[in-house]
Amino acid sequence: MKKRLICFAFAALTITCMVGQRMPANLQKLLNAEYAINALYVDSVDEKKLVEDAIVGMLEKLDPHSAFTTAKETKELEEPLQGEFSGIGIQYNMKQDTLYVIQTIVNGPSERVGILPGDRIIFVNDTTIAGVKLKNTDIQKKLRGKKGTKVTVKVKRGSNPELITFVITRDRIPLHSVDASYMLDSKTGYVKISSFGAKTYKEMMDALKKLKKEGMKQLIIDLSDNGGGYMDAAIQMVNEFLDKDQMIVYTEGSNSPRNEAKANGYGNFKDIKLVVLMSQYSASASEIFAGAIQDWDRGLVIGRRSFGKGLVQRPIKFEDGSMMRLTVARYHTPSGRCIQKPYTKGNKKGYDEDLLDRYNAGEYYNIDSIQFNDSLKYTSLVKKRTVYGGGGIMPDVFVPVDTTEYSKYYRDMLAKGVIYQFALDYVDKHRAELKANYKSVKDFDAKFHLTDADMKDFIATGEKEKVKYNEEQYNISKNVFHTFLKGLICRDVFSDDSAYSIIVSHSNKDLQEALRLINDDARYNTLLTTGNTEYEKIAAKHKAKAAQKK
Fold it and tell me: Domain boundaries in the chain?
C-alpha cells in the first residue's frame, strides 16, 4: 500500500512539474483527479465516459444551450443541416411493422432501379425488417451507408405473392429545408421553411424566382416551428430584403467583442411586401430573420411570441468526432433587443418548462394574458414604432392557437397513427384510379372528397387500433380529419411535399390571417406605421392592476 501511495505521489508530482508552468491551478486539479481515478480506483472505469460525463457536468452549470455530444450524436445533429446524406432515396412510413414506400426521390437511387410508391420492403440484405418491430433508427442504419455501396432489398408489390429483388446503389440524397412554395392567390407567394441549413438560402432563392415568374407581388414567409440552424443562412436570407448597411444582427459576449452583420445592398427583394409567420417553437436563426425584418419596419410578423433562443454556440470538435457546443455570445436584433429569454444558471428544468408555463398562463390563447414590461420596450429603426424585448420576438399581430376542432378523439387517432395508416391504405387501394382521375394537385384540391363510406372505414380503422368511436368528438373534428387525410392522400399520389401544404393551408388559421393581413393595405400600413396599439392598452391594464395590488 505504501509503495502504491509513493507511486501515485510520484506520478502526481510528475504531472505537476509537466504542466505547472502552463496550466491554471484548477485545470491541473482536474487533470490530477482524472489521473488518480484511472490509476487507483477500486474497480475498472470507462475513462472516456468519465471524461465526457465531467464535460457534461461542467456545461450544465453554465447555460441551457452549452452542450456536449458524442461522435454519433454529432453526426446525427449535423446531417440535417448539411443538406444531404447517403441513402436509397425514399420517403416511407411504417404501418403494422411494415415499411411502405410513400415516394421516391426524383432520379434517386430507388427510382432508377424501379422502386414504386406503395411498395413494401420486406428484406434488406437478407435480413427481415417486416413484422419485427424495428426502431426507425435501426431501419435507417440498414438503408443508409456510404455513397457507391450497394444494398439488396426484396419488395412486395400489390397483391403479387412473389417478392421482387432490387439491388440499389446508395447515393447522395438531398435534405430540403424549404418544405413548400406556391402561390396562395394571383399575387401572394408563400414559402414554408423548416430549418436554416447549408442549402436553405439557395432553396429559398430558387423558390422566390419561381414564384416571381408566376406573378408574385407580395410574400408570406412561414417560419412557424422552425427551430433554427446556421446563423449564416439567416443572414444571407435577410440580406435579400434589406437596404445597404442596414444591420441584420450583432453578437456580443464577455470574451467575444461585438460583431455586426450588415446587408450588402444587393438583395433582389428589397421592395416586396412581406409578412413573416412565427410560432412559440420558432427559435434562433428564425428569430434573427424575424427580428431584423421587424426592426427595420421591412414587414410584419404574425403569430405568437417565439421561443427566445439567442445564445451563440461555438462548436469545439475533439479528435474522436465528439463535440462541445460552447455559448460564447448573445444575439441582438438591430434595435438592441436581446433574443435570449431569461434563465437561471444550472436550472435547465425550469428553462425547459418555460413554454409550458406560457401555455398555462394562457399566452397561446388570449392576448390579454401576454405580459408587456415597460422596461423592455424598444423602438423600430424607420417608423419608430414600439417593439418588445424580453426574450423571443413578439409578433406585430397575435394569432391565438386554435384548438376548437382538436378533440380528444382526434388526438387519440393521431397518437395511434390511424390517420397516416388510413391514408396509406386508401392510396394503396386506389392509386391507379386517383392517378387517372386527377391530373394535378390543383385539380385534386378542387375535386377530391372523401365519402361518408370512406369515413366509416376510417372510424373502423381506429377501432381496430383500440380507439373508441365518439360521435360528438368526431363531429367536432370532422373538418380537420377530412383536410388532414386529403392532404396526406394528395402528397402520396403526386409524390410532392408541397401538395400536403397546399391542401392543409385552407385550415391553417395563422396562414389565413396572414393572407388577410397582406391583402388589406390599410391595416398593413397602419400596423407598420403605428405598431399594435392593442399591446399598449394591455400593458397599461396590467400596470394598473399591479399598482392596485400595491
Answer: 2-45, 84-174, 178-313+327-398, 408-510
